[in-house]
Design brief:
By secondary structure, the protein is of the alpha/beta class. Helices cover 30% and strands 22% of the residues. The two termini are 21 Å apart. Catalyzes the reversible cyclization of carbamoyl aspartate to dihydroorotate.
Length: 439
């Protein structure tokens, strides 16, 4: 039985496509036919026909920065519950950070995740740890990662403080053409910090995290990459590919902007909570646990710089940093709260509400940030709406208004500051791995 999507708004930035049309998919999940404009596709006997009535059919969203907590902290999230959260948000793929217990720092850990996620409805990429145990002391086996098809490495949650170790990491990622994803943080500056350092933190009596802690590490890394490119690389080796996770300050955005202009293969992502909230939201919140994250919620000046980075193209991806925590880890004094919030279910709605509806970016650009670019940065195959290609779709109603409620969450955790918030734009379902899941 084939599946036929009719009367869709076909939106695919990879093909510069934004038109009305229909797509037919065979029972193996391969696109049979694509019709645009006045063209039609004939339905066969027994075909499943879905009239989208102008709703958007876009490439399945891809989140390149998630934490599903398995193995080791399944009380917060599992591969299955994280997958359910992804489907609810319109995501057909995610990349999982390695800071599980134990840390994913070997092919054995990669194989574990792949084995236990094979039957899930989304595609899961495993990001390997940059150093053994993410301790910043010895490099993980990059060559073995590469042979297992790992596309990226990161010590997310920390950053290599030893510059010599970081130099080696940069060189070896170039050797094996791995994407280096940096959680940029000078731990000596941030130690014990809870929120952005400034008047707000002083007023609340909470130790601050100086915003300079992020660009200091990015600047160091870019200097290493510039030096390596100039003095060490021959034409035989690819250049290092460097990506800044959850960027949060104006200085950081400016560093990446200048690195791009200088020809470095640098990119960065921003989370919805960093382009939506500021430290003032934490101050105003009665229960502050769900406003505690790393990097901390920015000042208004830095939040505005993030929005400008999205507007001018410096920031190439939106990623959630989906970080589930149990209630007792958030419903506590702010200086005892775990860092991070969940985000898969609210990412699309926040992007449309805060960026598209406010004229910062177009809907096509939003899909690029949420799907096309993350896959490109990770080195994954692009999604094309062409016969013979695998069908991988998000079905989106960009005009649907809804209120964030944990009753519909697929995640095991509920740690989000957006409960009760009214948003516009929601995923209605996905098609991936020859399966249609509609909500």
């Amino acid at each position: 039985m084939s599946t036929l999507f009719l009367n869709a708004r076909l939106l695919n930035p990879a093909e510069d496509l934004d038109t009305t049309g229909s797509i037919k998919i065979d029972d193996q999940g391969i696109i049979e036919a694509v019709a645009t404009g006045a063209e039609t596709i004939a339905a066969g006997d027994g075909d499943l026909i879905i009239d989208l009535e102008g709703k958007v059919l876009a490439p399945g969203l891809f989140d390149m920065h998630c934490h599903f907590r398995e193995p080791g902290q399944e009380y917060k999230e599992t591969l299955e519950s994280g997958s359910a959260a992804a489907v609810a948000g319109g995501f057909t793929g995610v990349a999982l950070m390695p800071n599980t217990k134990p840390v994913i720092d070997s092919p054995l850990g990669v194989a574990y995740i792949r084995h236990h996620s094979a039957e899930l409805p989304i595609d899961i990429e495993v990001i390997g740890a940059m150093t053994v145990g993410s301790l910043g002391e010895a490099l993980a086996p990059y060559g073995k990662y590469s042979s297992y098809g790992v596309k990226a490495i990161s010590d997310d949650g920390t950053a290599i403080q030893n510059t010599q170790i970081m130099r080696l990491a940069v060189e070896y990622t170039a050797n094996f053409d791995l994407l280096l994803i940096q959680h940029a943080e000078d731990k000596y500056l941030t130690a014990g910090g809870i929120m952005n350092d400034g008047a707000a933190s002083a007023m609340l009596g909470l130790k601050g995290i100086p915003e300079v802690a992020e660009p200091i590490m990015i600047g160091r890394d870019l200097q290493l990459i510039t030096w390596l490119k100039k003095h060490k690389l021959s034409g035989a080796l690819p250049e290092p590919r460097y990506h800044v996770a959850h960027i949060s300050t104006a200085a950081s955005v400016d560093l990446v902007r200048k690195a791009k202009a200088a020809g470095l293969k640098a990119s960065c992502e921003v989370t919805p909570h960093h382009f939506t909230l500021t430290e003032n939201d934490l101050v105003a919140a009665k229960e502050k646990g769900n406003y505690i994250m790393k990097p901390p919620l920015p000042s208004e000046e830095n939040r505005d710089a993030l929005i400008e980075g999205l507007r001018d193209g410096t920031i190439e991806a939106i990623a959630t940093d989906h970080a589930p925590h149990a209630r007792h880890e958030k419903e506590c004094p702010p200086d005892q709260a775990a860092f991070g919030i969940i985000g898969l279910e609210t990412s699309l709605g926040l992007t449309i509400t805060e960026l598209v509806d406010k004229g910062v970016i177009t809907l096509s650009r939003a899909i690029e940030l949420l799907s096309t670019n993350p896959r490109r940065i990770m080195g994954l195959e692009e999604i094309l709406f062409k016969p013979g290609k695998k069908a991988n779709f998000a079905i989106i109603d960009p005009d649907l208004e809804w209120t964030v409620s944990d009753d519909e969450f697929g995640s095991k955790s509920r740690n989000t500051p957006f409960l009760g918030r009214k948003l516009k734009g929601k995923a209605l379902g996905i098609y991936n791995k020859a399966k249609l899941i509609m909500r």
